[in-house]
Amino acid sequence: MVQRDEGPPEGGVPDGALWALRRAELAVQGLKGQRLRSLGMAAAHYSLLICIHKEPGLTGAEAARRLNVTPQAVASLVARLEGRGQVERRPHPRHRHVQELHLTDAGRELLSSADLIIVDIERRLTERLGADGAAQLIMLLGQVEDAVREA
Question: Would you say 40 and 110 are in contact if contact means Cβ atoms under 8 Å apart?
Fold first, then answer.
């Protein structure tokens, strides 16, 4: 579900860079959610699947940190995806109370289908911005990330 944000509080800067980033993120997440629904998945499912794909064996706590959500939110998503046969938990080789997350064949297949949707959204964005504009956006967002980390 996409959260609707009515704007900054009184005295805020409605046209500032942070507000523009927020509006863009809401728009992207909304479109991703809408398109991914055709596969029976939410944007949060996609985020977790891609996270596990990039780092097989990730624990739920590690996934929560990567996705900036609570461990409880990840546990709920994992339970749902596990119930669908898309994710499996395996015992950690050294820590008997820790479980690692892995994609199943069904999870990899779903992720592959979802990637096609995400690539199409990316393509549409690049068409709108142009190749140079898309490259500039990526560079600027990297600078935003660096500035925030240095703050």
Answer: no
Instruction: Give the whole-angstrom CA distance, residue 37 versus residue 44.
Output: 11
Task: Please check whether residue 68 is in contact with residue 53, taking contact to mean a CB–CB distance below 8 angstroms.
Answer: no
Phi-psi region of 10 (alpha: psi -120 to 50; beta: other; left: phi over 0): beta
- Nearby residues of 12 by Cβ (< 8 Å), 6 or more positions away: 19
Contact call for residues 87 and 51 (beta carbons, < 8 A): no
**Residue 102 host element (H or E):** strand 99-103
Q: Which amino acid is at 120?
A: D
What is the rounded CA–CA span in Å between residue 63 and residue 68? 8
Residue whose token pair is 């507000």: 19
Query: Hey, what are 63's tokens?
Result: 């996934």
The Cα–Cα gap between 12 and 52 comes to 38
Render each residue's pLDDT in the chain as its tens digit; 151 residues: 555 556 656 666 567 888 899 999 999 999 999 999 999 999 999 999 999 999 999 999 999 999 999 999 999 999 999 999 999 999 988 877 889 999 999 999 999 999 999 999 999 999 999 999 999 999 999 999 999 999 8
pTM score = 0.81
